[in-house]
Amino acid sequence: MRPTVNGWLFDIHHIKDQMVLWIKQKGGIKRLEYPWSPSIYVASNLKKDLLALLDDNKILSMIKSYNFETKYEYPPSISNNHKNKKEVLKLTLADSFNILNLAKRIEKLSIRFGHYRLYNVDISPEQAFLYEKELYPMGIYNIERNTEENLEGFKEYQISNDKNDNIDSFEYAIPELKFLSFELISEKRSILNNIRDEILKIKVLVFNNDVPIKDAFYVFKENELETILEFAYEINRIDPDIILTTGGDQFLFPHLLYRAKVNKVQNQLLANLSREANIEYILKKNKLFLNTDTEGGSNSSSSFFSYGRVYFRPRPFFLYGRTHIDINNSFIYKDNGLDGLTELSRICRIPMQIASRSTIGKCLSSLYFYNAQKNDILIPWKPTTSEVFKSFSDLLKSDKGGSIFESKPGAYDNVAEFDFVSLYPNIMLKKNISSDTINCSCCNPESESESESKDRVPELKHLYHICKKRTGIVPLSLKTVLDRRLEYKYRKNNCNNQSDSHMKLRDRYDNRQTALKWILVTSFGYLGFSNSKFGRIDAHIAVCAFARDLLSITSKIAERHGFEIIHGIVDSIWVKERELQLKTSSIKDVKKMAYSKKRLKDLKSEIEELTDFSISFEGVYKWIVFDYSKSSPTLPALNRYFGVFDDGTIKMRGIEARRHDTPVFFINFQQELVNTMAGCENINEIIKKIPHLETIYKKYKSLLISRKVNYTDLIFTKRISKNSNDCEDRKTIENCVLKKLAEGGTHLHAGEQIKYIITDFYSKNYLNRATPIELINKNNPNYDKKRYLEILKKTYDSVTRVFYQR
């Protein structure tokens, strides 16, 4: 062997039977071809049925080789005993484009349910390669090439970790990357954007990481054709590693590509956008973009439902050898930058460009897949795990979710808050809860001792037992995330030096731990998600049961320590010292604060000791308001409260200032009210401040009446739940906006956002009620003063009404 290259694994993509590796070096980038093809696995109860597949000519035409291997099937119930591996048929493809065609062909040959069971079908070739070769994106590798050819005539590579990097590293280096961003300036036919608009010039900015290399410049020539070709030339000359856009997937690249197609230079443009020189491959990958004449490549964009909301995902526009990051389509990059994105990409083993657009659930699944493959567990194409049968009474016991201690609406002084640290992920880890460990076939619950049975699922011991012989895929994966996040938080908190280098390091740790936090937040919901490969509703139910039990134990400990429960929800609890104890205490007022903090510290210690779960003491509120439900003044709003800690930190949940759809004007107004109240030490002081709060209200009211508010601060943002065409019969403000946009040629998909101002809320003609921002006359914006004044009053009442009632 001879040394070939050393550098960062920047990007990978698969062409036929080759995995193309792009290795980032200090002096540039290197393209390597690694001979490799993805495989799928087929299981059946009889080997002769697997052999029969090899007689099918269509199957043979799509594979380059096959062999039999022993693997664990998933879920374990299929093979009855997880300890026994099973012989399965491995089919290695000749071209990765045929994976789904091959799987569907085999499925078609199945004569009954479960006849042929398919595995590892919908894992991308890039991810499968990373799992198999124990590689991860942005890792530093030494790559050597064999001098001898393998049986297929290829010279293989040997890849090993550089001594300065490994997957467990916390101080890994990110190479200096060259970024390029651009904007299209076009000749608009209407106020709304349209991909048919002719491109006049292109604004380009180049920078290294966060530092601009030079001022932005414009690309423009005598006509559109030459402007597009000149831009393609500039891309090739500058040779950026990352093209960073705002709306690149949905509009910028579809617009640019459409205009290039009109001018018959799409091949030249695509050849320069990517570093990959195989133009046939590039054209094949961008076929849908080239064949569409609508914004965002709508024939392959998608809307999806998650946690009560509909979201829209435009078709991603990928580059090859470069990385395209669309800020609008990557909340991880938007919130946590390159540090957070790199951390997720490495740990979950997903190429950075794909990770930037992936849901957190997809990133989490990739981590599960990696650990499954590492343990020889096959990944089912279509999950078939069924729910444990339950009687009606069992269903009532099990389907409860988390515990809630309803608060009595109102304002309170001196309330302490405790939050369990990553409670649900830690329950999954410590209790070994996973879809493959619930009611496993290898453990016998009947033979458990009394002490062992105490670890069974609370309230549901007769329904569930948890495996004690092996660690499940879910806890095995979550341990990596929990440990890394804890370490990053520790390192962040120990960066006390105020120097620029330490502040940058602190930000880096914070971005990485926050990115990991999103995996933990998602892990519980994904455990019960029907389409999750390693999800199971019974595992989800078990986690909830343990959480309810923990909150119940915690409340009893708090009451035993002389505290009353003000509010509790799932993994958080708010407590207050009993009034009787405060009045009869012989300790003087000057010592009372220290006394209370000691009692709170003792409470924290006992909760952790008796539950074996970490709980954080968030602090003591000088005052806190738990709001009541909008439907009834006697019922609490479980997720709406605000208050101020004794160090002056404000915490708000659920009120208008925290909502994403609230106009900036009302956010600023409510924030000023809360900031004013934050200076008060208790509720009585806030009541005395009411005249001052009313003065603030009158100030904002005057601004609206005199029309001195910038229209941009009055914009409402709403996410639509249906496509534009499906909302025609609804006479709502949202439909008014959609109809006006449609008249201008813009049709939105479910999950996309609309932005508008209210123009005549009480008009009998609903089409006069609002105007989308794209159609607003910016020189003379007209807004409905009466409606905005009503909203201002509601925003004021939302945070002050409890003080008027005392």
Mind explaining what this structure looks like?
Keywords: DNA-binding, DNA-directed DNA polymerase, Nucleotidyltransferase, Transferase. The structure is a single chain. By secondary structure, the chain is of the alpha+beta class. The protein has 5 domains: 2-32 and 142-161, no CATH class; 39-122, Alpha-Beta Plaits (2-Layer Sandwich), CATH 3.30.70; 178-374, Nucleotidyltransferase, domain 5 (2-Layer Sandwich); 385-435 and 438-471 and 536-648, Palm domain of DNA polymerase; 711-782, Orthogonal Bundle (Topoisomerase I, Chain A, domain 4). 39% of the residues lie in helices and 22% in strands. It has 25 helices and 27 strands. It has a 7-stranded antiparallel beta sheet with strand order 18-20-21-19-22-23-24. Strand 15 (302-306) and strand 16 (309-313) form a beta hairpin.
